[in-house]
Amino acid sequence: MSSQDLEQFRIFNKKLETEKDIKPILNAIKSLFDYKPAAEAKITLSNVGISNIVRCLNVQDKSNDDLTCEVLKICFEKFGVGDVVKHFTSHIMYLLRHEKNCVRRLAVDEVYKSVIADVSLLPVPEYIDIFVAVAQMVCDKDVGVANKAIIITSNLQFEAYPKVLEEMKIALEHNSSSKCNAYEVVINISLKSYELFKLSVDNGYIEHMVEELKSNDVLYQLNILELLSRLSVKPYGINYLVKDGALERITALIGDLRNNPLGGLLLPGYIKFFASIAHYYPKEIFEKYPIFLNSLFNAIESGEQTVLPVALDALGFIGITIEGKLCLTAVGSPFIQAIEKIGQLIRNSPAEIKIRALYCYASLISVEKDTPSQGPVDHRVTLMTREWFRSLNKESDAMETLLGICKIPFPDIKLAAYSLLDAVCQHLWGEELVARVAGFVEFLLDRSINEPKEAKEAKYDIIKRLSQSSVFDDNILTRFKTYVKEGPFYSDTTLQVAMEEGN
């Protein structure tokens, strides 16, 4: 800024100390800096400071608070990431604790930008007070401020966390929403390393979370289960829950749901919790906590709409791994009955359930995600998945049934059906079924069908897979390979335009 602008800002700054009507002065400062180059404005603001602007927030008349925030925001925008906190540390501390929402939001945004850009911009020894102040804001009544505080306190350097975790205890004295915010920070920190998890345990947070599952607040319980499920996928997390007896206590709570008038609302959360663990440790969960499997299969068999979508997702998540498939088949008839029920749901349910059931089936049939590249598929899995697929329609031909579903014009159903078809075509027996069913190859190769982009890409991937198959004759393989070469979005119009452009 020119020396004239610098002097002008000094005059405005001085007037803020003496004038009673500060609104015109704040507007003048706003106009002065609004369009000034950042480099020039930064020098002036660094030299003169912002103390008098900040002081405008500390007067009895609060009518100018919003305008003061606007002015401070313009001033802060002239600085690089992290520089505002470095240049005006004491002011940021004051702003973080201000009673006005817009003021706290302004301050926490500056800390947020610094931490997200580069956590090392604010070294812990110098700025620990800032981090402590932000940690206390996870209880903030302004949801936006609280959410930013959660992100900041979850992404600091290691040496900040002992103090941050200590501060989270403040939230435990507040309402369930604030406690959930604190728990989220605790879990985010615990997932970073065993040492930090141990620190969370020593502070009593994990035990407190498990005990809070006895609350009558349904949403609160579900949030805790969601957070604990994230922790349980870590070996040290699940080991603690088992050794501490927490998993046993959570299992007992499932048994009590039938006597709880709100049990129907809670059951989906408990199923998701145990499914997240069973995805990684199916054998141990099936053996030690059979009540989970019983609840899962009962939920599928009952067809209860409040829990069925979650149950389908859970079964698919468990069965997507090879170990999960083998453990499920070892369960015997309850699982077979569940498979048959899912086949019925695919054939006869409304769109939402049909789609969830198709994706569940696809996860159970698929082997690609859990099989080494080009490696052989366990022959037991080949036999199991073939039998499971037949349950799609035992009274008719399962592959003809799938072809019919693939032809349904609704995009979401079609995409889910293609997901199942792709899973089926990961097996030799699946390729053979495609080759056997009249009209299936023609349907796949028909580019005249009006399909959304995602469906065209999904069908293209299936054809690309089948183009490497050994079960089709040379003519069909040639057509498959031509389709692959032309790409998923080729059409006669594309060819016509290309020819016209070449003339």
Compact summary:
The chain has 503 residues and is an all-alpha fold.
How is this fold's topology laid out?
Layout: H1 3-18, H2 23-34, H3 38-48, H4 51-55, H5 65-77, H6 83-87, H7 89-96, H8 101-117, H9 124-136, H10 143-153, H11 161-167, H12 176-190, H13 194-202, H14 205-211, H15 218-232, H16 235-243, H17 246-256, H18 263-278, H19 282-288, H20 290-302, H21 308-319, H22 322-331, H23 333-348, H24 351-365, H25 379-390, H26 398-406, H27 411-424, H28 428-436, H29 440-445, H30 453-466, H31 474-486, H32 492-502
Helix pairs in contact: 1-2, 2-5, 5-8, 7-8, 7-9, 8-10, 9-10, 9-11, 10-12, 12-13, 12-15, 15-18, 18-21, 20-21, 20-23, 21-24, 23-24, 24-27, 26-27, 27-30, 30-31
InterPro entries: ARM-like, ARM-type_fold, PSMD5
Organism: Parnassius mnemosyne (clouded apollo)
Family: Belongs to the proteasome subunit S5B/HSM3 family.
